[in-house]
Structures are given as C-alpha cells and as structure tokens.
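Hi D.,

Good news: the full-assembly prediction came through. Inputs first.
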Amino acid sequence: MMLKSALAGATVLASVVLSTSVASAVTVGFSQIGSESGWRAAETTVTKQEAEKRGIDLKFADAQQKQENQIKALRSFIAQGVDAILLAPVVETGWDSVLEEAKDAEIPVILLDRTVAASDDLYLTAVTSDLVHEGRVAGEWLVENVGDEDCSIVELQGTTGSSPAIARKKGFEEAIAGHENFEIIRSQTGDFTRTKGKEVMESFLKAENGGANICALYAHNDDMALGAIQAIKEAGLKPGEDILVVSIDAVPDIFQALAAGEANATVELTPNMAGPAFDVLEAYLSDGTVPPKWIQTESKLYTQADDPKAVYEEKKNLGY
Ligand code: AHR
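Then the structure:
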C-alpha cells in the first residue's frame, strides 16, 4: 500500500517536473533569408542543431529571399508570443516598424550574420563578422600577391542592399585605394548564387576581350566565385592563374577549387552564429544579463598554402 502511494506520488511529481520543463521550454522564431548559398544552408543546419542541443523549440521560416516574407514571419512570431526572434535580414533597410512591434511586445530580437540600418535599441544584439574587414582582407591579399603589375578587377557583388554586399565592397575598395595599378573595371550583383555568378562572369568575359583584360575576380561569396570559375574555364582560360580568384565564406567546395589551383584565397565566415546567439539569449532570459550590441565572429584568410584538401575533409560534413 505504502509502496503504491509512494509510486503514485513519484508519478505526480514526475509529471509536474515534466510539465514544468515543457511549459518553460524557450520558443524562438528564426526568420532565415533562404538558401542562396552553401554558407546559408550550413547556417540553417547549425542553428537547428544548436536549438535541438539546448532544448529550444525553434520555429523556422524560410523567406525565399523576400523581405516582405521576413516581415510577415516576424509578425507571426510576435502574434504567437515567442520568447525571442532570430533574424537574418536580407537587406539593411525597412525594418524599423516590425522591430518596434517586437519591442512593444517585449520580444528580444537577435540579428544573425547581417546588420540593419535601424536604431540599435530595436534589437538585443547582432552576431556578425566584421563585414568591412572581410572585404579588406580579400583586397589586401590581392594587393600583396599582384605587386606592381597593372590589375583590372571584376567584382561580383552580393544581394543589392544587403549589408554584406555594401560592406564587403567598401572594405575591398579601401584595401586597393592608393594602389594606382588596381582598378575595378566591372561590378555587378550575382545575388550570392552560383548560377548568377556564372551568368554575370560570362558577360564580364565577353565584354573584356574574352577575359584577356581581366587580372582578378573578387566575389562577395564563394558560391558566386565557384560559378565564375566554371565560366572562366568554359571561356578557355585558367581560373587561379589567368584570372586570380578571391572570395569570402570558406565553404567546402572552394577548398576543392583551391586544391585544384582554380581559386586563390577565401575569407572564412563561420556558419555558427546561433551558438553565441543562444548563449547570450539564455543568460538574458534567465537573469536579465544584457549582452554587448555586437558579438563579432572571426574572419580567417585561407589560401592554396593552407592544405585545402585537409580543410575540405574537415568541413565537408558540417551541413554546407
Ligand atoms: O550574410 C552572409 C552572406 O550571405 C554569406 O557570405 C553569403 O554566402 C550569404 O548568403
């Protein structure tokens, strides 16, 4: 009898504990841009893994590259009363109203990998790389490796109006400024995709004497560089030699291109933005610890000298 009631008591206690922990599970809405690049696919995978590891209930919304879809997703998260929102903003501007709505609802918003042109009291923190610095690192690599020869550069920009496209252009231009032998002769968006990178590079090659006038390609991400590499090969030139290739992200495929001598340098962007974001969010929700407004991730340069085959092996199963 006593054993029976002790067991019954334990069951009640267990179910209270269980329902308390279920009731207190943190719910986070994640508005992702889409899946334009290998890097972004990895960021999505890592965010889902990090949430699962921590018992966070993640509500995922893919915006298919459209800001209006992101705004709708944010409004739906607010209506559902989530505990927090992760936002990877497709473009920089146009966020003020919806961020105000989240603020009024006391829902903290964390920006992932891109910044917005809005007052910083509208979000809790931003987990990003130094996007200008990335462009600068790419430009400095080119300046150091080309030396005094004249070098006409073609540039594949990221999504128009996005913070990485704006900042990576700025940083690269800063690095080549003052070096009279460097000039960006063509610059166009490739939307951060492989297909568009190839298409735009084909038009650059046609317009520039089949590529004979081009010394280097600077692409705001590896996917566009990989598409462009294909275009350069199809034009009968050797990427990495006839046209130098420098880009950003450090996705596994670019390491294969580095190993084959078809790419020259890439600047790494970690896809793990969610880890630091969830760390500060958990502290904020548990005891109100306010994080710094910017949590900066590292930007490491890789070249053909960095054992690209080995790096490819390390990275190939990480969700890219
Ligand atoms: O915001 C980060 C950029 O967005 C990545 O460099 C690019 O690949 C992407 O899609």
